[in-house]
Amino acid sequence: MANFILPGNAAYLNFQQRLPAPSLRPWVQCLWSMGGQSPLAPPIVEKLYPDAGASLTIKLASARPIITLCFNKHTLLETFDPSITRLGIRFKPASVYSLLGLVPEQLIDAHLSLGDDIKPFWMSSLTPVVERFHSLDTRQALDLLETWLLNLMESRAPAQSRTPRVVQAIHQLQLPPKQLAAHLGFTPRTLERRLKREVGVSPGALVAYARLERARQCLLETNLPLSEIALHCGYYDQAHFTHSFQSLTYETPAIYRKRKLSQIYKA
Fold first, then answer.
1. Does residue 2 have a pLDDT over 70?
2. N or C terminus of the chain with fewer C-beta within 10 Å?
């Protein structure tokens, strides 16, 4: 399953993450918080990369917290104000469908405001929980958010499906869609329909996300040349790597590596 790669300005944003309770781990990647820094700290722009997961975010910017859900199929640019506290849950692929009862294929590529853009059945139980956050510290707020999620899972057992295991297999195999379908015992059309309904993207997109994640890690954690990273991550060659990476991130691998490493060294 996808690994959470920290933002390049994690220290500046006071970004913190923690693992969820064991019973939530099939569905939840992590709980996180950021912000609460000096009001003089200037905002910065970060990229949100697609991995077929989703983020529930609570922004404590006013007396009425703002709750959004983001399922991005493409890389999004977002401005973060370090002075504003945000808390959230990062869900694994298929959790929007199985745990939250939403159809990810119908969600637009943006932050959706709960109560305005969408009104899920669990909104009535989450809203009073979030309204207590202003009187709590970050740790207490995340504890309360995790308790809400545990209660939600207990009251509505996640839909039984092979899809999370299928997603895991795709992430490990990184094979062309037709070979993936045959290996997993599906026809290509059946696999495509299932994943689009429950995960929100096609098998080919999942393969592309998995390769992107591995490539981003290699670019940040190794000194390997781009040609070796391309082969290690399942691309045909360096040209294929550069084209695929740029189509998803809107920058070349070389520029990505230079930008992210400069952020880390500045921190």
1. no
2. C
Tokens of 169: 């297999």
Nearest in space to 86 (alpha carbons), one of 145, 138, 21: 138
- Over residues 199-242, the pLDDT tens digits come to 999 999 999 999 999 999 999 999 999 999 999 999 999 999 99
**pTM of the entire structure?**
0.91
The domains located in the chain, with CATH, are 16-155 (no CATH), 163-266 (1.10.10.60)
Angle between helices 253-266 and 238-249 (to 10 degrees): 60
Q: Where are the alpha helices (DSSP H) in the chain?
A: 95-98, 123-130, 138-155, 163-173, 177-184, 188-198, 203-221, 226-232, 238-249, 253-266
Buried b / exposed e along 231-265 (16+ C-beta atoms within 10 A): eebbbeebeebbebbeebbeeebeebbeebeebee
143: DSSP letter:
H
Q: Measured between alpha carbons, how far is 127 from 63 in angstroms, rounded to an integer?
A: 13
Give tens-digit pLDDT for 121-156: 999 999 999 999 999 999 999 999 999 999 999 887
Q: Judge contact between 109 and 74, C-beta under 8 A.
A: yes
